[in-house]
Records
---
Amino acid sequence: MIFALQAKAVVWKGCLRDAETGAPLLGATITNTRSAQSVQTDRDGNFEIEGSEGDRVTFVCPGYATETHIILKGLEGVRLTFKLRMSGLQLREVIIKQRYKTIYQRDSADRASTYTRTMADKKASIASPVSFLADRLSRQRRAVFRFQRDFRKNEDIRFVDSRYSPELTNSLTGLSGDTLAYFMYTYQMPYDYARSASTLELRAWIRANYRDFLQKTDSLRNIKLPADSN
């Protein structure tokens, strides 16, 4: 009978607050881990939950560290105050990358920004005869369109050079100096291929052309010049 009286459930009353500000915590979950009973705090942080001496009660509130307290004897009817501290926020891992991976990308963006207005200028449509004729006759307008054409052509060349570089070619072929320059001049990479090829395809292209280069070089060495008749 004594054991039964000790184990008799009682109503445990309390108030849950922020440990720093003392503000009441609304909507926190209070759980008796033995009975699995759960209640939530009201707008003033108050709660009431049944329990017996020795029961463990957990306090869970979003943004706060979870705490566990044990119901002690002699606290029936006493409203206790509990305080939770905010938990440290664990951020997801973020990899910071450079805006531009290559020098070409950075310089190309700078050039595009510098000549934005000039490159945005468009030729007049033939549907507007006056403007169309003005474009054809104006020396300044012709110079603008010539600059646009040359600018796009140079950008294509710079892009190819950024992928088909002497450093990469040297690392794959071992060529250097004039021989390297001659090889890259002889085997020029098309712009469309440089734009669409993966890094693996790019390397394969250089190696394939290098094998062809070696074969042709050996063939030239084996050519016997005719003897001098004099």
Note: The radius of gyration is 40 Å.
---
Amino acid sequence: MRSTYLPLWVAASLLVANYLVASTYAEERVYELRTYTTNEGKLDNLNARFRDHTVRLFKRHGIENHAYWVPVGEGEDNTLVYIISHASNEAAKTSWNGFREDAEWQKVAAESEKEGKILAKKPDSVYMEPTDFSPQNFKSTEEPRLFELRTYTTAEGRLPALLKRFKDGELELFEKQGMTNIAYFTPQETPNTLIYVVAHKDADAMKKSWEGFRNDKEWQQLWENSTKDGKIVIKVDRQILRPIDYSPLK
């Protein structure tokens, strides 16, 4: 009987090849943060379209679904926020073209808008790359959570200092205060910007975590050391988000 075992050198070569493919995949993968604003009373229609069709069709065209949310407070009646990813920028173009030209999608889109247009304006899209310290923690939990999407704009040339501060201890201090680090990104086309997502048990836990963080002596020292050469963050935008039932991340 002929042996089915591969020669050692062949097996080793395959392992190296697989490693290189995986490494290339990780380095090239790009994430997309998209925000949709609906016409009045049309958010349920949009969510139904995503729940019943869009999420599945994204997957068909090579788009990976990560998280879908609606805001808590402002925008909760007309806004959908979500994160997807693509194998590369070129793959994103191919996937979106394939999705738009998909006959099933065209039929779904037409039927969903028989009673009026769903979107009030063109979706906002931000292509992002994960930082080298991002956990990419898109894992769901059994307990419901609140998510916080935060965007930091730095002074000119100060993004490296901000990234160093997060890498050197800020993520650990978030976890110390009960927050869960989800993902950290830098936009491809917006300089001096960090976008990240953290999760909280609930609104009370979120408030308690930030109070504890701000009063933490270790954080205060980290902040002082990082700003010796000047101010880093000049603007903070924040959205509190709750996951939708069809979101992979909850």
Note: Residues 1-6, 9-26 have pLDDT under 50 and may be disordered.
---
Amino acid sequence: MISVVVREYCASDYTDVLEIDNEAFSPKNPAYDLYIYLTYGSDMLVADIGGKIVGYVALMEVGLEAKIMSIAVKKAFRNMGIGGKLLDEAIKKCKERGKIRLFLEVRVSNYVAQHLYKKKGFEIVDIIPNYYNDGEDAYVMALNLAGQ
């Protein structure tokens, strides 16, 4: 069994996180995305296997709510529970900080991610038309943390 440690992001993780973001989302400028996550985000957690970063989650806190800005796992390490571990740690961190709700956006076609989020208690609360650059809509999903 693979031993995965979820820990706080540190500067030496930059290249690995950049590679994962680029592989998962093919953004025009992955370095800019990472800059936004680190500048405007409250936290970034990484999944570490023996010193190699294989996934990350970026959180932004606003008042009593938080938003998952991005979550991704390296393709070679998907379907191993790593995304779930990252999500669990993000939820735990939000609860510890007294957040009442956690949001995220997900492509309407990304059934695998939606299944994971629903398994963790997220519900679809809205749809944003033409959210992505290619015109695809996004579901807004929310997890109520109060009382959990």
Note: The helical segments are 14-25, 30-40, 82-96, 111-119.
---
Amino acid sequence: MSVSKHQVMIKGVKDGLVFLLNDTCEWEILLQELQHKLEKTHQQILTGPIIHVHVKLGNREVTEEQKEEIRAIIRQKGNLLIQSIESDLRSQQEAGEPAPSITTLKGMIRSGQTLHHEGDLLYLGDVNPGGTITCTGNIYVMGSLRGMAHAGIDGDENAIIAASHMRPTQLRIAGIISRPPDEWGIEEAFMEFAYIKEGKMEIDKLHQLHRIVPESMMG
């Protein structure tokens, strides 16, 4: 069996089918073979009544857009119902293995500029008014945050935003937007962090962070 010709393996399980996708080949080749197997080589077993499908990605990291590409191909078969798309990387993290460490970047985000990062970010520098910083995880700004910051943009309400000097034009965590800083009731917003509590954004001093975030999540 040539590995290069079998990037997609389809196995029958008790409650349906498992699609095992090679985690080392190029993404486009993987999609092409998935399409080919659904249309040609496995047409007989992929027709008929509703079949539940679980997609296993191995140790491949994928974006939501890439997951959607897989969903779009499988949905072409109207009887295939996708139950899950899972990566072993996520399973390892959920099992308590170390998550990826925080990334450190430095510089200055000027008006009109946007910095986006996947994961947690420690930013050494200022975010000026009109500048934007977005992350899927937590945002820590060692400098002045005077622009807009959006943490947990994929919907993670456990994310936080912290800054040495917190005077942003706006903060967002997941889908929740902060009140304007003028309404925080804080004169000097130094070493503050924002977090979600009972569906609302709260601002507190950084030394209170340990009360909100379990130590295991703080590295």
Note: The helical segments are 27-41, 64-75, 88-94, 209-212.
